[in-house]
Amino acid sequence: MPNRPSAPPARDPASSPAEEPVRRRPMGGRPRDPQIDGAILGAVRALLAEEGYAKLSFETVARRAGVTRPTIYRRWSSKAQLVHEAVFPTPGHAPLIPDTGDFAADVRRMVATTVASYSRPEARAALPGLFGDLHDRPDLRATVIDGLETRVREHFRSLVAAAVARGEVRADADADVVFDALMGAVFNRTVVRGDMSEAFVEGLAGVVVEGVRGRE
Amino acid sequence: MPNRPSAPPARDPASSPAEEPVRRRPMGGRPRDPQIDGAILGAVRALLAEEGYAKLSFETVARRAGVTRPTIYRRWSSKAQLVHEAVFPTPGHAPLIPDTGDFAADVRRMVATTVASYSRPEARAALPGLFGDLHDRPDLRATVIDGLETRVREHFRSLVAAAVARGEVRADADADVVFDALMGAVFNRTVVRGDMSEAFVEGLAGVVVEGVRGRE
Amino acid sequence: MPNRPSAPPARDPASSPAEEPVRRRPMGGRPRDPQIDGAILGAVRALLAEEGYAKLSFETVARRAGVTRPTIYRRWSSKAQLVHEAVFPTPGHAPLIPDTGDFAADVRRMVATTVASYSRPEARAALPGLFGDLHDRPDLRATVIDGLETRVREHFRSLVAAAVARGEVRADADADVVFDALMGAVFNRTVVRGDMSEAFVEGLAGVVVEGVRGRE
Amino acid sequence: MPNRPSAPPARDPASSPAEEPVRRRPMGGRPRDPQIDGAILGAVRALLAEEGYAKLSFETVARRAGVTRPTIYRRWSSKAQLVHEAVFPTPGHAPLIPDTGDFAADVRRMVATTVASYSRPEARAALPGLFGDLHDRPDLRATVIDGLETRVREHFRSLVAAAVARGEVRADADADVVFDALMGAVFNRTVVRGDMSEAFVEGLAGVVVEGVRGRE
DNA sequence: AGATAACCGAGACGGTACGTCCCGTCTTACC
DNA sequence: GGTAAGACGGGACGTACCGTCTCGGTTATCT
C-alpha cells in the first residue's frame, strides 16, 4: 500500500518488530479516526457508480463522505490512488482460483471471477479512468497494474504449466498471450461495451482452451 | 458526425436539395475558416501525445492552436467528441483488410493493423480517456464504439463466414468472441501495458486461429 | 475607488472622455452582474453586525451572499477594502454639515452625525478591525483614513476659520486638535465602550467649544 | 487575571487560604516552567511590533518563543488575552500621576504618559486588534477596558474634584467627558494616524483645560 | 519510595479559509 | 453570422493554519 502520503496508522504495539520491518509512525500524534477511511471509500464507490470517474473529485468525495478535503489528502495523494483503493482494496481483491486438475474448468472459473469483479458499477466506472491516468506516471502504473493482474497472471502461468505437465495444454503455449486474450475480452465486453453474458464466457473459454489444447 | 452543436458548414451548393434534406445553415454570415479545424485537431493530437487525456482541455487546445475557446466550442460540444475526431477521423479510419482466402494470415493482418493504430501516442492517450467519458452518455457511446470497431467487427464476421465455408474454421465458431479476444488483447498490451511486440501478435493470432480451426 | 483589482465596469459610453480620464475597461468581456455587488456588500454588513470583524472572511461572505469566492476576489482585493466599502460607501458617506453661523450648534450637529454613523452595528464592528489592518499598508491607510475623515476634517477647518472671523472662536485655536478631541471621544464612547448618550454629546461639545471660545 | 483556562500557578503556600479562596491547583503535578511565560510574552511583543496583530497567531508565537502551541494554550485561552497581558501587564501598567495642585500641568503629564504607552510599537499594533476582538465577548471587554483605563479614569475624577475644590475647574465639569476627549484624541493621533507630536499634546491639554476652567 | 498528576515537546488530527486555476458562457467590436 | 478578445460566475484545487488530541518522557508533590 504505497499510496499514502504519510505512513498509515499501524499503531499496534504488539506486532513483532523483529520479523517484519513494520513501517510504523515514529511516535505520537493524534490517531486517525478509523471510521473516516470507510466513509471516504464508500463515498468514492457510490460516486463512481452514480456519476462516473470524470465527475468524481476530492471535493465531491469530501462532500459525500461528510469530511473535508484535507482529510482526504492526508490519506491519498491522487484521485487515481484513492479510486484504486476504493474499488480494488489491495491486495488479494482478486481471489486466486484453485487448480482442480481440469484446465478448461479452471479457465472458465477464472474468467467468471474477473467478470464478477469488473461488472460492479464502481469497477466499470473506475477502470478506464484509472488506465487514462497512468500516462507518464510509472509508479502509479506499477501500483495499479500490479494490483489488478500481476498476482493473477502469475498464478495463471502456474496453472498452465501444470496443465502442460498433465498433457492438457501443449508445451509451447504462451500463458501470457492466453491471459491477455481472456482479460482483454472481458474488459471489452464488461467495461466498454457492457453486454457481457454467460454465453460469452463459455464461448471465450472454449475458443482459448481449444487454441492451446495439447496434441494427442 | 452528430457531434457538432450547431450546423456544420455543409455549404456545398451542388448537393441536391431534393433527394436529401441537407441541413444547410439558414443563410449569410461569415463562413468558418476551414484552416481552423485542422489547427485545432492537430493541437489535440499533439497535446494527447505530450500531456495525456487528463491534462487536455479546451483551454490548452485553444492556446496551442492559437484560437479562442469559443471557437472550439462552436465546433465540438465536448472534450470526448473533439478527441475522438482528432484521433479517429471518422469514418473508415480503420481500413478493412481484404479476404485473401488464408484466414490465419488475414487475422494476423487485422491484428497488426489495429496494433499500428492503437500504438500511435495520441491513440494510446485517447482510448482510456474516451472509454472513461462514456459513462451515462449513450449517444457518445454509440458514436465512439461505432467509429472504433463496428465496421471492422462486421467485416470480420464475413471473413469468418467465408473461412467456415472454406473449412478453415469450424461451423459453430462465434466471430464476436474471437473478435473481442483479439481486440481486447491488443488493447491491453498496447494501450494499458505498453509492451506490445510482433511475437505477441503472432502468438495471439496463432492461439485464436487454432481455437476455431475446423475439424478434419 | 482605487480598491478594485481590475477596473470597475464603468461602461457608460456617454461619459465625456475629454473632461475626465475615466478609467474604463479597454473593451469587451461579459459585464458584471450588478446585483452581485449589492448582495456581497449586504452580506458583509450583516456578518459584521452579527459576528464581528474577526469572524468575517471571504469564505463566510461568499456563503452568505450566495456567490463564490473568486467572484468577490474579482471585486475587492482584501478584507479591509471590502469592509470599508460595505460600511462606508465612499465617498461622501459622511455628509458635511452646513455652516449656520452658530459654531456651538454646528459642532453639536457634526458630533451627532458622527455618532449616528459610528453607532451602526456594522460600523462598530468594522472600525477597530479596519484600524488594526492598517499596519504597514500605507495605501490602505490612506484609503481608509481619507474615506473616514479627511473631507470632514477639512470642512471643519473652514468652519473654525469662519467662526474665528466672527469672533466666536479665538484666533489661535487649532482646528485639528479640536477635531481629534471630538472624533476620538466619539470613537471611544461609541465603538470601544458602547455607552454613548445624548448627554455625552452635549457635554463634549460644550467643553470643547468653551475651550476655544473667543475672548471678548 | 481571569484569563487562564486552567488554574494559574498560584502555588504560593504563604497566601492565606482562609481570607481568600485562592484557586490553587488541586494537587501535585509538574509545575510550570516560569521562564516560558516570559519567553512567550516577549515573542508576542516582538511579533506585534514587526508583523502586526493580524499576522500574530498561536502558531507564530510558539515558533518564535521556541515552544509548542499547546504550551501556550495551557496559559491563555485566546489571542486577545495573550496580547493584552503581553502589552499591558496588568495591573498598574499605567502609573497614576500625582496631584501637584496644578491641574493644567497634571493633565499635560497624564496625556504624555498615555502617549508614551500608546506609542510603543507593540501597543500601536495591539490596541485596534484588541478593540476589534471585543465583539460579543463581555468578559474580555471588561478585562481589557478595565486594564486600560478604569483605574486611570477614576484617578482622573479625583484630580478634577480636587481642582474644582481649588477653583481651578468649574463645578459642573464632567470629568468623564474630559477624560474621553483626551484619551480619544491620543488614540486617534498615536495609534490610528501615527502623527502624534509634543505640540499636539500641548494644544490638546490647553483646549480641554480651558474648556473646564473655573469662572472667577 | 512509590504513586500520582500536571507539565512539556512532538506531532498528527479534522476543519476553516485561503488564493488560484480552469471550466463553460456571455458580451462587445469587428470583419 | 463567425471571429478574436476578454471578462464573467462557478467548481475544484492544493496548502496554510487553526484549535485539539494523544503520546512518551519529565518533574514535582502527596501518601
UniProtKB/TrEMBL annotation, chains A, B, C, D:
<feature type="region of interest" description="Disordered">
    <location>
        <begin position="1"/>
        <end position="36"/>
    </location>
</feature>
<dbReference type="Pfam" id="PF00440">
    <property type="entry name" value="TetR_N"/>
</dbReference>
<dbReference type="InterPro" id="IPR009057">
    <property type="entry name" value="Homeodomain-like_sf"/>
</dbReference>
<dbReference type="InterPro" id="IPR036271">
    <property type="entry name" value="Tet_transcr_reg_TetR-rel_C_sf"/>
</dbReference>
<feature type="DNA-binding region" description="H-T-H motif">
    <location>
        <begin position="57"/>
        <end position="76"/>
    </location>
</feature>
<protein>
    <submittedName>
        <fullName>TetR/AcrR family transcriptional regulator</fullName>
    </submittedName>
</protein>
<dbReference type="InterPro" id="IPR050109">
    <property type="entry name" value="HTH-type_TetR-like_transc_reg"/>
</dbReference>
<dbReference type="InterPro" id="IPR011075">
    <property type="entry name" value="TetR_C"/>
</dbReference>
<feature type="compositionally biased region" description="Pro residues">
    <location>
        <begin position="1"/>
        <end position="11"/>
    </location>
</feature>
<keyword id="KW-0238">DNA-binding</keyword>
<keyword id="KW-0804">Transcription</keyword>
<keyword id="KW-0805">Transcription regulation</keyword>
<dbReference type="InterPro" id="IPR001647">
    <property type="entry name" value="HTH_TetR"/>
</dbReference>
<feature type="domain" description="HTH tetR-type">
    <location>
        <begin position="34"/>
        <end position="94"/>
    </location>
</feature>
<dbReference type="Pfam" id="PF16859">
    <property type="entry name" value="TetR_C_11"/>
</dbReference>
